[in-house]
Protein: NAD-dependent succinate-semialdehyde dehydrogenase
Organism: Maritalea mediterranea
Amino acid sequence: MSIKTVLKQHAFINGEWVEGSGGDRFEITNPATGEVITSISDCSAQDAQQAIAAAKAAFKPWAAKTAKERCQIMRRWFDIVIEHEQALAELLSTEQGKPLAEALGEIRYGAAYIEWFAEEARRAYGDIVPTHKGDARILVMKQPVGVVAAITPWNFPNAMISRKAAPALAAGCPIVIKPAEDTPLSALALAYMAELAGIPKGVINIVTTSKAQEVGEVLTTHADVAKVSFTGSTEVGRIIMRNGADTIKKLSLELGGNAPFIVFDDADVDRAVDGALMSKYRNSGQTCVCANRLYVQAGIYDEFVEKFSAKVAELKVGNAFEDDVVLGPLINTDAVAKVEELVGDALDKGASATIGASKSDKGELFYNPTILRDVSRDARVLREEIFGPVAPVIKFEDEADAIALANDSEFGLAGYFYSKDIGRVWRVAEALECGIVGVNEGVTSAVEAPFGGIKQSGLGREGSHYGLDDYLELKYVLMGGLSE
């Protein structure tokens, strides 16, 4: 199947493919080539309100279906996504730039959330609690929260949709999704797959727009939206919290990260190098959980940097559809400029580049994989989320120093460390201030595990059986008068 099979050019509201109310359109470009892929509906605040109204109308009928019925429909959605996985991966690579093999992995990863939550729909168990009164019984039931608004990022344009839509639908909630302006085509394709699966009108709505602030304000303030799920920057997360305050919305916020990656001197250095390679350079470093600050103990520092540099030198930069490409382009010119600023600041403060530190000749948005050694502890690259293929490597002396450095951040999403000492494994895993910890592993994401952070990296968890609870409300029922 070709991209044309899954390419949609209109918003999806109340089960219909529609133009925006103003008739405006905006262009989607391929970041690797700069070529225009297509133009799509540019929705307004009015369209967002219509989508919310459609979701509200769909809520009670969808919630009234049995968990098994929702499960069966969602399972068809999963099967159709897998049937179209190659075309979906090609579309994703074209609009986002990541290598085709990586895009195919994302499609399967995203589909796994649909499969997982289709099954979890039947496991929203309540409780009967030991009573405080002899003639009464205490029941706790779980019910869907209501209309959900989701605002998703460009770095995982398929998986970040399914990771929010799947638990919402499983719980009985309809959803209105505003995908990122740079990568809306994957969202529309997923809605098309849902349409083919028979998901009822209004249960999934996709509002495509270049007017992010205008549409986002409607989604995060509207009285009929019960919950907002957002993945993006901490700065925007703060705005969403303020917007939802007046109506006390339930929130899931997966925000910025600044993941430490610690290598102790008792670690398997080769394994640590491989883990750093996967964690740092996946999606060209454009992930919220990728290694952002690499701390290596003094005794193995030079060995690690040498081996890491040799491995990074083998990484191929290029267009998503070229053979053996590992790193694609960054998403836009602002992203490239940010990486150049951070690298420049680190170099000005005494760091040196063992490899990279320059734009690639592959195109305007390509940046060479970079390693910076001897990075000053006051460099911006250690404070700010890089979102690019740059690995700053910092030397530390002992365990206490490593933990202090790792926790010296407003963020607390992911952290990684390598050690063979079982005592150290427990100590450091417990001491790291983050929601996700990889021990001797550089990639941690899995549908079975709860994904989310602490501190200013957000609220709530996605995936796992915990992920369903974020779309459910607890209701306490006291049944009295039961004595004879």
